[in-house]
């Protein structure tokens, strides 16, 4: 099966023909992005190009995918409840707030809004929970050339609480892979290549939130960067919202637009360009780079103080910090929010080792372990977007520099995952077109709408796979490290 799937039976000429068709299909059907290029246009973006993608889908065992899907509703509920718990956030993040100005800025906004009273109790969360398939015994393989289920375990990498991307592009990539399999003469079943349209599910969450706001003339505001290379993925969501309800108007604005043109009415409605905003969907604002001046911070505060529903709220964004992930791995932390023992087990079964770097004996011990065995750990700051983690000797050097200072509290230490290796063709600028050893990361999308203790929507709505050359540490697609992929589901 694996041999056929990855095109070993095809000649080089046949593979190049499939590649040619695949690129045109990707351009025609929106598997594209706009790479940064300061010389190509005045706004800093070149014309749309194919997003990096794999020529064929990659194998994922059914049990692994099902396990990831089965725990998503549990994770949605957990992360929502964590975000509502001010005291837990305060205690968990206190060391990070001291040394990380970005997290401190978000925390200050949260505290100001909380003190004056939250104007909008309803919140929308569009999550993506990222996992890898950790190989526990590389000596075992099946006839398909991959380890059996008994030698694989699902391990969580991170849960994205803001700007969970690629739901749009990945749905189209699944259709692309059905086409390339057809061109390669590979037969497949619906079970092996299931329908997958996470953008429709995320858009459904937006529509539900807009309806909950209750004003038919109000708009959905996409908060975006002034230069946005991943605009097509965002447009997919916009078009899916229109597909579900063509009466909803979507506008795109930056933080500076909010600062210069938005205001709050007497009853705290968010108004910009004479439009009342029902929902703010943040596709920007997840990194320190988004806030180069006080203007951007004041714009974020204005939105958080408003009656508009936020996706995410600032406290939900804070709950996505790696420090929260590490604190939730402590005994009793998940149980504080989830009473069902089966749900707790589903969540905890995916946890990798997490270690605090706070000042004190526990943090000192973690630093020593990482410096002594740098290949066993990853150093992770409180950042989204890819390209921030430190590995191996780079991690060791950084810890030797900061390991005895409070600056280490800006990071957490995580057990390193050794993911399932496979072979595929990655179509990516600067990468030769050849059969390559790859590893993949599995993402599950979730939708949650809540208000206080009330859970209004809680569901999972699809999956994505992103693959990278084996030995590449980082995994971001826009950051240039990985390629869009989809799971070919097998029983092993």
TrEMBL record:
Mg(2+) binds at residues 158, 160, 384. Pathway: Sulfur metabolism; glutathione biosynthesis; glutathione from L-cysteine and L-glutamate: step 2/2. NCBIfam families: glut_syn_euk. Catalyzes the production of glutathione from gamma-glutamylcysteine and glycine in an ATP-dependent manner. Glutathione (gamma-glutamylcysteinylglycine, GSH) is the most abundant intracellular thiol in living aerobic cells and is required for numerous processes including the protection of cells against oxidative damage, amino acid transport, the detoxification of foreign compounds, the maintenance of protein sulfhydryl groups in a reduced state and acts as a cofactor for a number of enzymes. Participates in ophthalmate biosynthesis in hepatocytes. It comes from Batillaria attramentaria. The lineage of its organism: Eukaryota, Metazoa, Spiralia, Lophotrochozoa, Mollusca. Pfam families: GSH_synth_ATP (PF03917), GSH_synthase (PF03199). It catalyses: gamma-L-glutamyl-L-cysteine + glycine + ATP = glutathione + ADP + phosphate + H(+); gamma-L-glutamyl-(2S)-2-aminobutanoate + glycine + ATP = ophthalmate + ADP + phosphate + H(+). Its cofactor is Mg(2+). Keywords: ATP-binding, Glutathione biosynthesis, Ligase, Magnesium, Metal-binding, Nucleotide-binding. Substrate binds at residues 128, 234, 466. Transmembrane segments: none annotated. This is Glutathione synthetase.
